[in-house]
Amino acid sequence: MATLVGWHVELEFTEEGHRTSAAALVRLGDGSEIKARGYALRHPSDPEQLRVGEEIAGARALMDIASQMLQKAHSEIDEATGRTSYPLGG
């Protein structure tokens, strides 16, 4: 099976106190980039587990990326067809 295109995804994390931030970037095959941020807050009584904060913040950033990608795809469909398209489950 031949690979038609590849996407490059970058995630970067920072932690300040009880807050973990994730910055996500995806570079699409058409040269466009989509960026998003996600956050996680640790309750002061919870043990420090950096990995968990990264997973939550990263997942939230990637969920935002997914939403933006759906919007982009549907805008392209609408432009090509002259009709309004609707994402399933969106």
UniProtKB/TrEMBL annotation:
SUPFAM superfamilies in alphabetical order: Rv2632c-like
Top-level lineage group: Bacteria
Protein name: DUF1876 domain-containing protein
Organism from which the protein derives: Streptomyces avidinii
The organism's taxonomic lineage, starting at the top: Bacteria, Bacillati, Actinomycetota, Actinomycetes, Kitasatosporales
